[in-house]
Structures are given as C-alpha cells and as structure tokens.
C-alpha cells in the first residue's frame, strides 16, 4: 500500500497537481479503494489535521514575523548586528547569519527570515564586493535557522504529531541552533576569503551603542516570549499571540512612520496566505499518513526494524538519508506527515529519545529548504531578488555542506539536544 500510495502521489505531481491535493487524493484513494472506509470518515481526516490547539501558534508567529518585516522593526535589529561585526573579515555574511539567528527566534518562519534579512543585507554585501552567489547563498541557508531556533513552526507540527511538550522541544533547539549558526559563520568567513571585498567602515562605540538602544525592543522579544513559556506564564500558543501584540506595541511606539494601514494589511495577507498553504498541506498529508496507519504500515516497519541486527546508529543514519532524499522533491510539511507516523514508532523501538529525534528531524528539514531542485529558501531568494536560481544554488552549496556536518554532529552527540531538557 505504501508503494501504491507513493506511485499515485508522484503521478499526480508529474501531471501538475498541487502537493496538498496529490497527498490528499492518494491517501483518499487508498482509504476508499483498499481499506473500504466511508467517504465521510475519509474527508474528516482533512479537517482533523488542523483541529489542534498548538497549531494556532503558526498564524500568530507568522504574523509577528511579517509585522516586524513590514514595520521596519527587523531593520533596526539588522543594523545593530551590522554595526557590531560588519567591519570584520567576512563580517557581512557572518552578520547575516547572526541576524537570521535572532530573527528566527522572533518569527519561526524561514521565508520571513530570508525576506527580512536578505532585503537589507544582500544589497550591502554585493555593494562591498561579495559575490552574488555568496551573498544570496548565505542568506538562503541562514534563513533555515528559523526552523531550529525556537519558536519553530516545524517543531510545533512535530510536537503535535507525536504528542510531546512543544516547550521542551523549543528548549532543546537552542543549543543545536547555536551550533549550526557557528558552523555557518565559519563557513561564511572561509567562503568570503575568495571575494575581493571592501571592508565596511568600522563603527564607533557610540554608533554601536546607539544602534543597540534602537534595536533593544526587538532584541527583548525572544526573552519575553520564550521566558514566558518556560516560566509557565503562558503556553506556546498564547506566547505566539503575545508576540503579535508586542510587535504592534513597539512598532507603534518606535516605528510610527512605518506603522501604517498598508503595512498591517500586507502583514495580514502574507500571514493568511502562508497559513493557508501550511494548513492545506497538513490536511492532505494527514489523509495520506492516516491511510498508512489504518493499513498498519508503521507497525510492520517497527517490527521489521526491531528485528534487524544492524546497530541503532546506522539505522538512524539511513533514516536521515531518507529525509534528505525526500527533501530534494518535497517541502518539509508533507515530509513530516508522510514519514513521522511511519518512522517514529520504529525509532522509539530503537531506544532513541523523542526530543533528540525531533531535533534531528528538524535539522533535516532545514537542509530540505536549500536542497535543489525544490528547496523553498532557494526559490524565495531567487524570486524576491529576481536572480537566476542557479546562482542561488551555487552560492548555497558550501552552506549545505555545513548543515550536513552539523546534522552528523547532532546525531552522534545527542547531549547537545537533550541536556537542557533533563
């Protein structure tokens, strides 16, 4: 049934059907033809996918990120990081990574991070002599940090699927996110050596301090949101709503010029469009994964894996390779909904920590964002800056290597993922 479902799915993709429809139809056909389920039960699976309290956090975090982008709040944060390290060798690409790390902690969205950071950093890097490939590649790659640095939309989806505390998963993502950011910074500095660049003029201590004060309201947002979650003041879903209110307040107080009806409308429309896409993917993917669950595919795979004589780390490595192969052709949301119901029971049977597996899964989803031919971040940078996709792909290759190395480190050093949650 898994093979038949995948064949139907890829045939629908080839003829041009959207991913959510391909998943939903292939799952629906399996349930109707092979499992003889009533049509009402099949259709209800589409709605059940989004009927979870924690998923309400997704539109709120998306809206917060879009508000920061359109209200100019993100620019102040980018300006501070730029003043701080932009003058160093490879400083501008490194500043792009650091800014993406901070912005990822505000929005939870790779797309919002890429657009916000890229809009300000890429023109500056090109002007200073950094190659287009490097400038666009580093932003496309660093934008994926929004999936590991909490709050993360993919973490919310994963936690809702396997029924674990998303706050614990958020906490677990902090150190891995910083490790990945450090590897990307090192890669950015090494890659930038070959670019014949001008050094950005070193900012004075007064300029750095002034930019810090201006950016302080933005920098406080992760502290308030994540601090509120871990102290028990509010739930992750409530924290997402708080983040929207907070951005509106600081934008009204400190960015009055950009606090316009037009910018609010843009933020709302972009958030609604992205939320709709995600929820459609959730619905379609849930129909597919439900069909496999009814057919006992996860149980059979778990039984098979538990009988293998291979070491657990090798099986896990093969699972990560499977994630990466899927990432070449699919977005992260359908990958999660297709694979997690099948693989999660098998991974638990091997004795792995669900938090550790979650972090590894998110790391692979980050890689899928910049894996050709369908990496979402690659298309966002290419489309937003009207540059050839091949240019962005070439620039992202060194950073793709860094993400692969980071994932291997996280696999063999589980302490990085779990020590904050113990």
TrEMBL record:
Q: Which InterPro entries match?
A: DctM, TRAP_DctM
Membrane-crossing ranges are 6-33, 53-72, 92-117, 138-157, 169-191, 212-233, 239-255, 267-288, 308-330, 335-352, 358-385, 397-416
- Localization, UniProt: Cell inner membrane
What membrane topology does the UniProt entry give?
Multi-pass membrane protein
One family from Pfam that matches here is DctM
Q: Which residues form the TRAP C4-dicarboxylate transport system permease DctM subunit domain?
A: 6-416
**Could you tell me the keywords of this UniProt record?**
Cell inner membrane, Cell membrane, Membrane, Transmembrane, Transmembrane helix
This protein is called C4-dicarboxylate TRAP transporter large permease protein DctM
What organism, scientifically named, is this protein from?
Siminovitchia terrae (Bacillus terrae)
The organism's taxonomic lineage, starting at the top: Bacteria, Bacillati, Bacillota, Bacilli, Bacillales
Coding gene?
A: dctM
């Amino acid at each position: 049934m898994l093979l038949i479902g995948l064949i139907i799915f890829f045939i629908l993709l080839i003829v041009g059907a959207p991913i959510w429809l391909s998943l939903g139809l292939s799952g629906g056909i399996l349930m109707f033809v092979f499992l003889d389920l009533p049509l009402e039960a099949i259709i209800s699976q589409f709605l059940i996918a989004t009927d979870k309290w924690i998923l309400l956090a997704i539109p709120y975090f998306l809206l917060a990120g879009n508000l920061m982008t359109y209200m100019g709040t993100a620019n102040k944060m980018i300006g501070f990081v730029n003043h701080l390290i932009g003058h160093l060798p490879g400083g501008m690409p490194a500043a792009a990574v650091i800014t993406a790390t901070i912005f990822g902690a505000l929005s939870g969205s790779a797309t919002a991070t890429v657009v916000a950071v890229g809009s300000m950093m890429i023109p500056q890097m090109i002007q200073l002599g950094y190659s287009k490939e490097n400038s666009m590649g580093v932003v496309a790659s660093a934008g994926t940090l929004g999936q590991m640095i909490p709050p993360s939309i993919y973490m919310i989806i994963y936690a809702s699927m396997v029924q674990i505390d998303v706050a614990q998963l958020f906490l677990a993502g902090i150190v891995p996110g910083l490790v990945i950011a450090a590897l990307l910074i090192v890669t950015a500095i090494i890659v930038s050596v070959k670019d014949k660049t001008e050094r950005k003029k070193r900012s004075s201590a007064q300029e750095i301090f002034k930019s810090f004060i201006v950016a302080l309201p933005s920098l406080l947002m992760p502290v308030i949101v994540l601090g509120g979650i871990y102290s028990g003041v509010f739930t992750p879903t409530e924290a997402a709503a708080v983040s929207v209110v907070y951005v509106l307040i600081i934008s009204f107080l400190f960015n009055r010029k950009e606090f316009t009806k037009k910018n609010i409308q843009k933020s709302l429309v972009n958030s609604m469009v992205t939320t709709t896409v995600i929820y459609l993917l959730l619905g379609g993917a849930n129909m597919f994964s439900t069909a496999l669950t009814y057919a006992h595919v996860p149980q059979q795979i778990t039984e098979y894996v538990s009988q293998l004589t291979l070491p657990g780390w090798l099986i896990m490595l093969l699972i990560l390779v499977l994630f990466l192969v899927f990432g070449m052709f699919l977005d992260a949301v359908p990958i999660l909904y297709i694979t997690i119901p099948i693989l999660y029971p098998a991974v638990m049977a091997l004795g792995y920590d669900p938090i550790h597996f979650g972090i590894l899964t998110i790391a692979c989803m980050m890689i899928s964002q910049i894996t050709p031919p369908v990496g979402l971040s690659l298309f966002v940078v290419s489309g937003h800056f009207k540059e050839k996709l091949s240019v962005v792909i070439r620039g992202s290759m060194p950073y793709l290597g860094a993400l692969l190395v980071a994932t291997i480190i996280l696999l063999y050093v589980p302490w990085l993922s779990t020590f904050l949650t113990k």
